Amino acid sequence: MRFFTPSPLHHRLGLVCLGVGLQHGALPTVGPRTLDHHVAVIVNSGTGWFKGPDGRRTPVTCPSLLWLTPGTPHHYGADPGTGWDESFVDFTGPATTTYTELGYIEPDRPLVPLADTAAPRAAVGRIVRAARRGNPLLEVETGAAVHELLVSLRRARADIGPDGDPVLQALARDAYQPLTVAQHASRHGMTPAELRTAVRRGAGCSPKDYLLGIRLGRAKELLAATDLPVAAVARRVGYDDPAYFSRLFARRVGTAPVRFREQQGRSVPGGWSDQVPDPDDPPTIGP
């Protein structure tokens, strides 16, 4: 168990780690108490219980995540007969507000079932390794690992399959088709409100913003790696009006499509591919 006190400058990075711990066995009950910062408690094995502000005792089965959020009373513990194996990370910083808005931190759902804890435990392990005494990069390394931890916990939620949310997958497949949000919803047998709720829960944004992010990401790739005219790029990502596409691109990206292409200044020998290389098996370059 280690605790840290990052400087005000480190807080400006957005997230800072305040502490990390690995514990197992018949642990003492925690609380009742209220904290001024966030804690993610990852329960890997064993059983126990959790009480939130309503005082209701909820069973904890593994694997699970306990969200302890600032200003919220909580009380929890492992069953004396079984104990449990837990990892915890204390953290704070202005980025917690955005992570909460995106749905990565869930104050209204303090007990979250997890499908697997391998990736979150790997992120905690990086914090533990960085916590060696005398490490001059301690605050930055542990802060970066907190970002990684939040992403891995989001992906490890039991209500999301290994390949992600099926609604988001379907939206991504249809992203370049000229469909309204209502038409996308109808394709999935949902009302627009139900689709907005599902996308907000899965991606932390509206369906419109989710689709726009996919379209503009693809447009950037085409602009950077091909010689296609801007009008052709617009059509490939679902916009029949190139002028509207250019205005939208400039407003969201901060620069016009033509200027973005000039800034990239890249050519791709042998042509462009949308296949992501396997980092464990990179392509070889011939003689």
List the helices and strands and how they pair.
Blueprint: E1 2-3, H1 8-11, E2 16-25, E3 30-33, E4 38-51, E5 57-61, E6 64-68, E7 74-78, E8 84-92, H2 95-101, E9 111-113, H3 118-130, H4 138-155, H5 166-173, H6 181-187, H7 192-203, H8 207-225, H9 230-236, H10 242-253, H11 257-264
Antiparallel strand pairs: 1-2, 2-8, 3-7, 4-5, 4-6, 4-7, 4-8, 6-9
Helix pairs in contact: 3-4, 9-10
Strand content: 15-25%
Tell me the number of helical segments per DSSP (H or I, 4 or more residues long). Answer: 11
Task: Report the sheet with the most strands, covering strand number, pairing sense and barrel closure.
Answer: 9 strands, antiparallel
Provide mean pLDDT, rounded: 89
Uncertain stretches of 5 or more adjacent residues: none
Class per helix and strand makeup: alpha+beta
Encode the helix/strand succession as letters: EHEEEEEEEHEHHHHHHHHH
Intertermini distance: 52 Å
Please report the total strand number as a whole number.
9
Instruction: Calculate Rg over CA atoms.
Output: 23 Å
Helix content: 40-55%
Taken from the alpha-carbon principal axes, the silhouette is globular
Explain how this protein is built.
The chain has 287 residues and is an alpha+beta fold. The chain has helices at 8-11, 95-101, 118-130, 138-155, 166-173, 181-187, 192-203, 207-225, 230-236, 242-253, 257-264, and strands spanning 2-3, 16-25, 30-33, 38-51, 57-61, 64-68, 74-78, 84-92, 111-113. The chain is globular, with a radius of gyration of 23 Å. Strands 1, 2, 3, 4, 5, 6, 7, 8 and 9 form a 9-stranded antiparallel beta sheet that branches. Strand 4 and strand 5 (57-61) form a beta hairpin.
